[in-house]
Amino acid sequence: MNQEFTRQTKELIDNLKGVCTSYGLGNDGNEFKIITQVFLYKFMNDKFGYELKQLEPSLKDAESWEQVVADYSDDKYDLLLLKMSPDSARLKREHYLSNLHNRQNQEEFAKYFDDTLRDIAIFNKDIFSVKTEGRAKVELFDELSQFISDSSKRDDFCRALVNQLVNFSFEKTFNEKFDFFSTIFEYLIKDYNKDGGGKYAEYYTPHAVSKIMASILVDEPTSNVTIYDPSAGSGTLLMNLAHAIGEDRCTIYSQDVSQKSTAMLRLNLVLNNLVHSIQNIIQGNTILHPYHRNGDKLKKFDYIVSNPPFKLDFSDYRDDLDTSDNHDRFFAGVPNIPNKKKESMAIYLLFIQHIVYSLNEKGKAAVVVPTGFLTAKSGIEKKIKEELIRTKSLLGVVTMPSNIFATTATNVSVLFFDKGLERDYAVLCNASELGTIIKDGKNQKTILSEEENQKIIETMSNALEEKQFSKRVKFKDISERKYSINPGHYFDVEIDFKPITPEEFIDKKNSYILGLKELVAKGEELDSALTDMLEKLEHER
């Protein structure tokens, strides 16, 4: 049944994309808004009907629950709205999809369609709006018909969208769990979550990596905790962490400068029954203007996960960061502006410091970093590692296989912090040899199997040691190795020794001598040729 729902839902998404293509919006920059917002409207409409039937069981047997509800008094309807689940949008009767479908032949239908979605956004703005760092509110829906430049085609475009929605229902999916909706979400955004090269490029964290990070962080039941991602993107890390803790036992906080990523994250929260956290989703520059505070101080969190952008030109506000107000937050320093390649400024170093600073006294974090960070012997990188070792809060490191992220060829690792850690060692795990390489379009991608995922999780969670895979390394040993935290630097060197007979030794020795003589002869021939060439050039001159 789950597979059938998944197939039907993906078919709906494909059909909506087909409508956009037919009206000239295929691969258009606005196609993302249309697909995700129409999908969200349909989801909210069906979720509202589902919740209404829980409150009024008699509606489950009605041929058309919309027609039955149409006869309710305004007072009765308003009372039902007050009783609705907080995860469901409140809809007026004129907001229903059935109402849009019944009115699609009226004049200026596109305007009616846009007005309906806009009124839903206004009616639900207190719960479903995302705030910006300047405290403006970004509402749920845009005027979608306006993306069609030929105004004569707008009515037909909106009719085509509505007609795709009416033959499908989400109602049977509302009892599905996280894995179902994470699959649907990934499919919904797969064509729109590419690295476009802009500021804070939207790297999508693979579901498997997100699950590994969450499972290692959440090693025991917990409740009433705060979780945070300062570079949230589409929210994959946050969703996996919330699922590991329990969606009803945590509150999500996030910030991301990208409008598109923030819209994706809001959609992700709606799909995964985390509407109560939308009020904490902020669109803005975390490094320059961190939003979440307790009074005049930055808020401290129980759990933090992040896959920050690695390189970015932030030279236009670099000096605004290097002030006395930020010295505690950026304890290891702010990267300087290079003379060349400003776009290579290591902004991830600021995110790591911000994360360390934003953990409470027993907080835990997992952050994706370029693997080169592990071996850096100087600069800001070394100072960050010194602090983690000094405070004994480095839980461990996992080096990931190459191409684990299809959007970047950079080799990545995951750092795990725990400010409440009560031991004198970190677990260093080399998972770089795991996984299966597959083709992903024009790129190669490495996929971890479920068994390999579990091996990494169990190794880190139980501090297991395995030859050439994982090792417990004492903090004092890390200090002595100039703060290298690359697992391979601590594995025993193994020499493949095979005993041979005296006769075999003589044969090998003679073979090496012969090879050396051949190399010397070739060198003499090359030397002679070069001498002849120089003499010829000298003669010609």
Question: What is the secondary structure topology, with strand pairs?
Answer:
Elements (H helix, E strand, L loop, with lengths): L1 H21 L8 H25 L9 H6 L3 H10 L13 H6 L6 H15 L1 H4 L1 E3 L4 E2 L15 H12 L12 H12 L17 H11 L7 E5 L6 H10 L4 E7 L2 H13 L9 E3 L9 E2 L2 E2 L2 E6 L11 H4 L26 H11 E12 L8 H12 L3 E6 L12 E7 L6 E6 L5 E5 L2 E5 L2 H12 L8 E5 H6 L21 H39 L1
Parallel strand pairs: 1-5, 3-4, 3-8, 4-5, 8-9, 10-12
Antiparallel strand pairs: 1-2, 6-7, 9-11, 10-11, 12-15, 13-14
Helix pairs in contact: 1-2, 1-8, 1-9, 2-12, 6-8, 9-12, 10-11, 10-16
What's the overall geometry?
Answer: elongated
Low-confidence stretches: 195-202
Strand content range: 5-15%
Q: In the CATH hierarchy, what is the class of the largest domain?
A: Alpha Beta
Strand order of the largest sheet: 2-1-5-4-3-8-9-11-10-12-15
User: Please, how many domains?
Assistant: 3
CATH architecture type of the largest domain = 3-Layer(aba) Sandwich
CATH superfamily label of the largest domain: Vaccinia Virus protein VP39
Number of helices: 18
Helix content estimate: 40-55%
Q: Structural class, please?
A: alpha/beta
Through-space gap between termini? 87 Å
> How does the major sheet shape up?
11 strands, mixed
Q: Find the count of extended strands (DSSP E, 2+ residues).
A: 15
Alpha-carbon Rg, integer: 29 Å
CATH fold category name of the largest domain = Rossmann fold
Return the average pLDDT rounded to an integer.
89
Can you tell me about this structure?
By secondary structure, the chain is an alpha/beta fold. The chain folds into 3 domains: 175 residues, Ferritin; 289 residues, Vaccinia Virus protein VP39 (Rossmann fold, 3-Layer(aba) Sandwich); 44 residues. Helix content is 42%, strand content 14%. An 11-stranded mixed sheet has the order 2-1-5-4-3-8-9-11-10-12-15, sandwiched between helices. Helix 11 links the parallel strand 3 and strand 4. Helix 1 packs parallel to helix 9, helix 6 crosses helix 8 and helix 10 runs parallel beside helix 16. The longest helix is centred in the C-terminal third of the chain and has 39 residues. It is elongated. About 1% of the residues have low confidence.
